[in-house]
Predict the structure of DUF4325 domain-containing protein.
Amino acid sequence: MKEATTFSVRQLGKYPATRPLGQEGRARLDDLLEGHSNIDLTIDFSGVEVMNISFADEFLGKFLASHEFSTSGATVRVTGLNSDNRYSVLVCVERRKTAIVVAEEDGTLSLLGDPILEATFEVAKELREFKASDIGAKLDLTSQNANNRLKRLADAGALHKAQVVGSSRGGKEFAYQVAGTVVSDARNRTTA
Protein backbone atom coordinates (compact mmCIF):
# COMPACT_ATOMS: atom_id res chain seq x y z
CA MET A 1 0.00 0.00 0.00
CA LYS A 2 1.23 3.49 -0.84
CA GLU A 3 2.01 5.98 1.90
CA ALA A 4 0.59 9.41 0.98
CA THR A 5 2.92 12.26 1.91
CA THR A 6 2.53 15.97 1.19
CA PHE A 7 5.34 18.53 1.18
CA SER A 8 4.19 22.17 1.48
CA VAL A 9 6.50 24.49 -0.45
CA ARG A 10 4.93 27.43 1.43
CA GLN A 11 7.17 26.53 4.39
CA LEU A 12 10.03 27.91 2.27
CA GLY A 13 8.26 31.28 1.89
CA LYS A 14 5.66 33.05 -0.23
CA TYR A 15 8.28 34.26 -2.71
CA PRO A 16 11.07 31.63 -2.94
CA ALA A 17 13.71 32.99 -5.26
CA THR A 18 17.20 31.68 -4.57
CA ARG A 19 19.15 28.55 -5.44
CA PRO A 20 20.31 28.06 -1.81
CA LEU A 21 16.67 28.05 -0.68
CA GLY A 22 15.85 25.61 -3.48
CA GLN A 23 18.71 23.38 -2.35
CA GLU A 24 17.39 23.45 1.23
CA GLY A 25 13.90 22.49 0.05
CA ARG A 26 15.27 19.71 -2.15
CA ALA A 27 17.22 18.30 0.81
CA ARG A 28 13.96 18.17 2.79
CA LEU A 29 12.28 16.29 -0.07
CA ASP A 30 15.19 13.84 -0.22
CA ASP A 31 14.85 13.29 3.54
CA LEU A 32 11.16 12.42 3.06
CA LEU A 33 12.08 9.69 0.57
CA GLU A 34 15.17 8.31 2.29
CA GLY A 35 14.65 4.76 3.50
CA HIS A 36 11.05 4.64 2.29
CA SER A 37 9.41 2.88 -0.62
CA ASN A 38 5.97 3.13 -2.17
CA ILE A 39 5.50 6.80 -1.29
CA ASP A 40 2.84 8.80 -3.10
CA LEU A 41 4.41 12.28 -2.81
CA THR A 42 2.44 15.46 -3.43
CA ILE A 43 4.45 18.68 -3.62
CA ASP A 44 1.97 21.44 -2.77
CA PHE A 45 2.64 24.97 -4.03
CA SER A 46 -0.52 26.46 -2.44
CA GLY A 47 0.28 29.79 -0.81
CA VAL A 48 3.40 30.36 -2.89
CA GLU A 49 2.70 33.65 -4.67
CA VAL A 50 5.57 33.50 -7.13
CA MET A 51 8.85 31.64 -7.46
CA ASN A 52 11.55 32.27 -9.98
CA ILE A 53 12.93 29.74 -12.43
CA SER A 54 16.25 29.45 -10.55
CA PHE A 55 14.46 28.33 -7.38
CA ALA A 56 12.15 25.99 -9.33
CA ASP A 57 15.11 24.38 -11.08
CA GLU A 58 17.20 23.96 -7.93
CA PHE A 59 14.27 22.67 -5.90
CA LEU A 60 12.10 20.66 -8.29
CA GLY A 61 14.15 20.25 -11.47
CA LYS A 62 17.18 18.78 -9.73
CA PHE A 63 14.96 16.68 -7.43
CA LEU A 64 13.19 15.10 -10.41
CA ALA A 65 16.41 14.61 -12.37
CA SER A 66 18.24 12.98 -9.46
CA HIS A 67 15.72 10.17 -8.83
CA GLU A 68 14.40 7.19 -10.73
CA PHE A 69 11.18 6.93 -8.79
CA SER A 70 10.24 3.56 -10.28
CA THR A 71 13.07 1.86 -8.36
CA SER A 72 11.49 2.81 -5.01
CA GLY A 73 7.89 2.56 -6.16
CA ALA A 74 7.38 6.28 -5.50
CA THR A 75 5.01 8.49 -7.43
CA VAL A 76 5.24 12.28 -7.51
CA ARG A 77 2.84 15.06 -8.40
CA VAL A 78 2.59 18.80 -7.85
CA THR A 79 -0.51 20.76 -6.92
CA GLY A 80 -1.52 24.32 -6.07
CA LEU A 81 0.21 25.92 -9.05
CA ASN A 82 -0.88 29.40 -10.09
CA SER A 83 -0.12 30.47 -13.68
CA ASP A 84 3.26 32.08 -12.84
CA ASN A 85 4.48 29.08 -10.86
CA ARG A 86 3.17 26.66 -13.50
CA TYR A 87 5.34 28.47 -16.06
CA SER A 88 8.43 28.16 -13.80
CA VAL A 89 7.80 24.43 -13.34
CA LEU A 90 7.27 23.96 -17.08
CA VAL A 91 10.56 25.68 -17.91
CA CYS A 92 12.53 23.61 -15.40
CA VAL A 93 11.11 20.23 -16.50
CA GLU A 94 11.63 21.06 -20.17
CA ARG A 95 15.23 22.10 -19.55
CA ARG A 96 15.91 18.95 -17.51
CA LYS A 97 14.16 16.76 -20.11
CA THR A 98 11.88 15.25 -17.48
CA ALA A 99 8.19 15.45 -16.68
CA ILE A 100 5.87 16.02 -13.71
CA VAL A 101 2.24 15.18 -13.03
CA VAL A 102 0.08 18.16 -12.06
CA ALA A 103 -3.04 17.67 -9.96
CA GLU A 104 -5.29 20.41 -11.31
CA GLU A 105 -7.84 22.34 -9.22
CA ASP A 106 -10.71 20.34 -10.77
CA GLY A 107 -9.13 17.04 -9.67
CA THR A 108 -7.86 16.01 -13.10
CA LEU A 109 -4.25 15.09 -13.76
CA SER A 110 -2.06 16.50 -16.51
CA LEU A 111 1.60 16.13 -17.38
CA LEU A 112 4.10 18.94 -17.94
CA GLY A 113 7.25 18.27 -19.93
CA ASP A 114 7.94 16.38 -23.13
CA PRO A 115 4.94 16.58 -25.55
CA ILE A 116 5.41 12.93 -26.57
CA LEU A 117 5.22 11.85 -22.94
CA GLU A 118 2.20 14.12 -22.45
CA ALA A 119 0.35 12.28 -25.24
CA THR A 120 1.33 8.92 -23.77
CA PHE A 121 0.15 10.03 -20.32
CA GLU A 122 -3.25 11.05 -21.74
CA VAL A 123 -3.74 7.53 -23.11
CA ALA A 124 -2.52 6.06 -19.81
CA LYS A 125 -5.19 8.07 -17.96
CA GLU A 126 -7.87 6.62 -20.24
CA LEU A 127 -6.66 3.06 -19.65
CA ARG A 128 -5.95 3.47 -15.89
CA GLU A 129 -4.27 0.02 -15.64
CA PHE A 130 -2.33 -1.30 -18.61
CA LYS A 131 0.72 -2.99 -20.07
CA ALA A 132 3.09 -1.67 -22.71
CA SER A 133 1.23 -3.61 -25.41
CA ASP A 134 -1.99 -1.73 -24.53
CA ILE A 135 -0.27 1.65 -24.94
CA GLY A 136 1.41 0.42 -28.13
CA ALA A 137 -1.92 -0.61 -29.63
CA LYS A 138 -3.60 2.72 -28.75
CA LEU A 139 -0.75 4.85 -30.10
CA ASP A 140 0.35 2.54 -32.93
CA LEU A 141 3.81 2.06 -31.40
CA THR A 142 6.22 -0.86 -31.35
CA SER A 143 6.48 -2.66 -28.02
CA GLN A 144 9.99 -1.29 -27.55
CA ASN A 145 8.88 2.30 -28.15
CA ALA A 146 5.93 1.90 -25.77
CA ASN A 147 8.25 0.36 -23.14
CA ASN A 148 10.71 3.25 -23.50
CA ARG A 149 7.99 5.86 -22.98
CA LEU A 150 6.51 4.03 -20.01
CA LYS A 151 9.94 3.63 -18.40
CA ARG A 152 10.52 7.39 -18.66
CA LEU A 153 7.08 8.11 -17.16
CA ALA A 154 7.62 5.62 -14.32
CA ASP A 155 11.11 7.00 -13.61
CA ALA A 156 9.61 10.52 -13.45
CA GLY A 157 7.10 9.30 -10.86
CA ALA A 158 4.06 9.70 -13.15
CA LEU A 159 3.22 5.98 -13.23
CA HIS A 160 3.35 3.15 -10.73
CA LYS A 161 5.09 0.11 -12.21
CA ALA A 162 4.58 -3.44 -10.94
CA GLN A 163 6.05 -6.66 -12.29
CA VAL A 164 3.50 -9.23 -13.43
CA VAL A 165 4.14 -12.45 -11.54
CA GLY A 166 3.96 -15.67 -13.57
CA SER A 167 4.10 -14.01 -16.98
CA SER A 168 4.11 -16.57 -19.76
CA ARG A 169 5.71 -14.20 -22.24
CA GLY A 170 9.31 -14.84 -21.20
CA GLY A 171 11.34 -12.09 -19.62
CA LYS A 172 9.91 -9.44 -17.33
CA GLU A 173 6.46 -8.05 -17.95
CA PHE A 174 5.14 -4.99 -16.16
CA ALA A 175 1.72 -3.54 -15.46
CA TYR A 176 1.34 0.19 -15.00
CA GLN A 177 -1.16 2.55 -13.48
CA VAL A 178 -1.40 6.32 -13.28
CA ALA A 179 -0.13 7.74 -9.99
CA GLY A 180 -2.88 8.05 -7.43
CA THR A 181 -5.07 5.21 -8.73
CA VAL A 182 -5.46 1.86 -7.00
CA VAL A 183 -4.41 -1.44 -8.56
CA SER A 184 -7.49 -3.68 -8.41
CA ASP A 185 -5.70 -7.04 -8.14
CA ALA A 186 -2.46 -6.48 -6.24
CA ARG A 187 -2.12 -10.24 -5.59
CA ASN A 188 -0.73 -10.73 -9.10
CA ARG A 189 1.92 -8.04 -8.93
CA THR A 190 5.09 -7.32 -7.03
CA THR A 191 6.49 -3.83 -6.81
CA ALA A 192 9.45 -3.14 -9.09
In short: The chain has one domain: 3-191. The chain is about 40% helix and 25% strand. The CA atoms of residues 98 and 113 lie 6 Å apart. Helices lie at 19-33, 53-65, 83-95, 115-127, 132-139, 143-155.
